[in-house]
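Why this split exists: single-chain examples teach little about how molecules sit against one another. For that reason, every record in the complexes split bundles all components of an assembly together and asks for one structure covering all of them. Below is a record exactly as it appears in the raw files.
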Amino acid sequence: MAIKGRVLSVASECVPLLKTGGLADVVGALPAALAAEGWDMRVLMPAYRPLLPLLDGGAVLWQSDDLFGGPGRVVATSKGGMPVLLLDAPHLYDREGGPYSGPEGDWADNPQRFAALSWAGAMIMRDGLADDWHPDILHAHDWQAGFAPAYMAYEGMEQPSVLTIHNIAFQGYASPALLAALRLPAHQFHADALEYYGGISSLKAGLVTARKITTVSPTYAEELMRPAFGMGLEGVIHARAADVSGVLNGVDTEIWSPETAATPYSLRSFKGKAAARAALCDEFGLEVPGPLALIISRLTDQKGIDLIPAAIPDFIAGGGGLLVLGSGDPALEGAMQALAEAYPGRVAVRIGYDEALSQRMFAGGDAVLVPSRFEPCGLTQMYGLRYGTLPVVSAVGGLADTVITANPAALAVGAATGITFAPTDTVALGQALARLLTLYADQKTWAKMMRTAMRQPVGWETSAATYAALYDSLR
Ligand code: ADP
Ligand code: GLC
């Protein structure tokens, strides 16, 4: 296929190199999905310490003597078949700890660390790479890349930029004292530009300068314009409404497939799923007569995990069980462990991050719970659809856009794929879990819902075509 154009995607994480959440899945999936649409996309991300071995033998395609306090270079390399541009700047990224925080919390120089990433992105837009790759469009993801469209605008560059909001809760706040250190023009420090509650916000800087703004579901695009979800930036986003759109994420349907589970299954037969369930219950010492519900999640306030303890007792009494895989807020980790102690044989908890286990869980579970307070898109409910592990979700953001709730009308026409509830509180969650017990008890209806869920198109095809159309419109 002839190449329509080149896109530089700038992000702080990318599968299979480094992941803390769904952002990495999406950034890692887009290049292949867009290649099918004729767009040549390269990903630029920091060379954090665990990625340094990948630099060996890679081609150096860009460099700078002074990248916010030390030298920086961009090295083209790859991992697991995924080509990537790593920004190697040891003074910013070669340290023990996570991408955003170390043992003492968030890295104090995060503003500089991600300004450097954004600056390198903007300079590559201006000068191209040493292998003669000249991008046409910059695609920035979240606050970590928010300054990239801003630097392009401030440097007078005319190429288009797109900023995708994966989560408005993280806004890239920096002290106003850093204005010069972050290479930001003083005259942009005002309420219509990058000033935000007296400080600097890299996300706001991107929102006011990017040519187009997208977020990861149509419902979240609307929610973001309201105070309840905009988290302070609703006015900024509303002012740009004409340039804002929601493009639902997809999932990798080859990696996330019941047909490649240890005991494979498909629409034709669920025998493999029954075997996966039995193996999972064995592994965790569970004996669950009713539906086995899963939670696979960061354990944070966003995800509504704190609602579980009050809503779960009736569900357990009705025959249900719960298997939790997650890590995060220590108080929520403790609350989940307390449930496992209170309901041995019915609730089990694994604190940690384990992708292989998450796949065994999707194969063996009956339902996946996602009671988020807000959810820009959410991927786990889509994995649930893929595996016929029916999603029970709060009706927000991408959850509302991907799950068709089992009301009488949807059941009558065979469209239902899960259960949605609102508002996100204990009472509504409890009612949703009661509904789950009832639906599961009717095995014919349940099997029908599983089949409908597994047929949902959750791959990247539609979204990739939508991004391609957006890029086309910018040419
Ligand atoms: P978010 O990015 O807000 O965390 P998403 O649903 O978009 O939410 O993406 C979360 C991703 O991280 C999914 O791929 C999910 O399967 C994965 N995940 C979350 N917690 C764990 C865990 N403890 N073990 C394995 N995978 C996890
Ligand atoms: C964020 C959101 C999540 C979304 C992911 C990928 O982490 O919290 O809802 O699926 O980004 O876009």
